TrEMBL record:
Residues 48-74, 89-136 are annotated as: Disordered. PROSITE patterns: PROKAR_LIPOPROTEIN (PS51257). Keywords: Signal. This is Carboxypeptidase regulatory-like domain-containing protein. Residues 1-28 form the signal peptide. Residues 58-70, 108-136 have a biased composition (Polar residues). The lineage of its organism: Bacteria, Pseudomonadati, Planctomycetota, Planctomycetia, Pirellulales.
């Protein structure tokens, strides 16, 4: 009898843990472009923070394009995202520990709270253009 109860509890625990994995948040592909004063920004990072949930980021390529990923998963959560752009001269890294060159974008764009940049991610393909200006 005890063996049967223990077996049932083990089976119940195994079935419960299967349901905990879930499929996670809904992600959609995002491939966009960053322009500074109308010209492609050739380096840096795009960072996003949705209203709720996990943010996304992507490296800016030499032609100004970026593709967002959320952790190890490609894409960004569906919904509205505040956006930041960080780019330093002579460095492809945005790590605080890495030596940084001159900031290539105005300081206001380096914070999701202050940049004024947003993107709306919907299911399906998303191709936003982030237009930054040097003017204050």
């Amino acid at each position: 009898m005890r063996f049967q109860i223990a077996l049932q509890l083990a089976l119940l625990a195994a079935l419960t843990s299967l349901g905990c994995g879930g499929s996670g948040p809904t992600l959609a592909p995002v491939t966009g472009k960053v322009l500074l004063d109308g010209k492609p920004l050739a380096t840096g990072q795009v960072l996003t923070q949705p209203t709720a949930g996990r943010g996304a980021n992507g490296s800016i390529q030499s032609d100004g394009t970026f593709t967002l990923s959320s952790g190890r998963e490609p894409g960004a959560m569906v919904g509205t995202h505040q956006v930041a752009v960080v780019a330093y001269e002579g460095s492809g890294s945005t790590s605080p520990e890495a030596p940084q060159g001159k900031l290539l974008v105005p300081q206001r764009y380096t914070s999701t709270e202050n940049s004024g940049l947003t993107i709306e991610v919907s299911s399906g393909e998303n191709t936003p253009t982030l237009e930054l200006t040097s003017a204050k």
